[in-house]
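About this split. The held-out portion is used to measure sequence recovery: a designer receives only the structure tokens and must propose an amino acid at every position. Recovery is the fraction of positions where the proposal matches the reference. Here is one held-out target exactly as it appears in the evaluation file.
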């Protein structure tokens, strides 16, 4: 399905240059990888976060076929994190407490 662009608002170029995803082309590539190889894609993303406990089971497990049993999705089975620490605390501890956290 093609992506709609008529109502798209692009960030300022100075923001795009320092962003995790700096262009629509990069976004499309990341989206494609997330669909084709979700375990590899999300494995890379999780390397950027602090975990209290690492994954103990399968990184990704799912069943979308009702003929094969119960429908389920499990991500990062057994892992534990602290969202507040990941969103704020680790950045303050890294000396970025006076910086703007999010532009848009």
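Reference sequence for scoring:
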């Amino acid at each position: 399905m093609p992506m709609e662009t008529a109502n798209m608002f692009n960030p300022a170029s100075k923001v795009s240059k320092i962003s995790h995803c700096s262009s629509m082309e990069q976004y499309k590539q990341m989206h494609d990888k997330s669909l084709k190889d979700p375990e590899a894609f999300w494995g890379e993303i999780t390397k950027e976060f602090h975990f209290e406990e690492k994954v103990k089971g399968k990184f990704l497990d799912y069943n979308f076929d009702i003929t094969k049993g119960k429908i389920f999705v499990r991500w990062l089975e057994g892992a534990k994190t602290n969202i507040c620490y990941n969103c704020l605390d680790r950045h303050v501890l890294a000396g970025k407490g006076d910086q703007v956290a999010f532009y848009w």
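Annotator remark: The beta strands are 60-63, 72-75.
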